[in-house]
Amino acid sequence: MPAQESNARWAQVVSNPLLRDLPFKIELNKFGQLLMRPASNKHGNAEYEIGRAIERGRKGGKIIMECSIQTSDGVKVADVAWANDAFIAKYGYDTPYPRAPELCVEVVSPSNSEEELQYKSELYLAKGATEVWVVDEDKRVRYFNAIGEITKSELVKRLRF
User: Fold this and answer.
1) 76 and 123 in contact (C-beta within 8 Å)?
2) Fold that domain 40-150 belongs to in CATH
3) Rounded to 5 degrees, what are φ and ψ at 62?
4) Are 28 and 71 spatial neighbours (Cβ–Cβ below 8 Å)?
5) Any idea what DSSP says for residue 70?
6) Is the dihedral of CA 72, 76, 81, 84 positive or negative?
7) pTM for the complete prediction?
8) What are the extents of the domains in the chain?
9) pLDDT tens per residue, the chain (161 residues)?
10) Are 121 and 14 contacting, i.e. CB atoms less than 8 angstroms apart?
């Protein structure tokens, strides 16, 4: 599905009152089909704590929870993202973003497979993310950039949960 058509489909999803209060994270695949995952309060709390930790380690920019990004496989939603001030000045709060913010974070859910997390990381990096983090339930962080897995973040020097 072309990006313009996918963006229009995403706008329909976001504005649909029947989908507004579902306890699911919603994404689109490249065919415009809805993908839904159950959300948990533990997952939501982890998103919040990660966002706060990034905010403490990075000055400026914006933390975005549930950040929608147009990818080659439809609209994907990073659990947490950090966008610098230039990104926000250029894109504001467009939904979905046509490119990924500098940092995208996936919080592992029981329904996520390792393959899916790797795939989503690759999609975010292909759309311009500098780093992607995958954070598990025990707050262990795996860091990735365009080269592959790295030992620490270059964007956030001190990460404290």
Assistant:
1) yes
2) tt1808, chain A (3.90.1570)
3) -135, 145
4) no
5) E
6) positive
7) 0.89
8) 40-150
9) 788 888 888 888 888 888 887 777 888 888 888 888 887 889 899 999 999 999 999 989 999 999 999 999 999 999 999 999 999 999 999 999 999 999 999 999 988 899 999 999 999 999 999 999 999 988 899 999 999 999 999 999 888 87
10) no
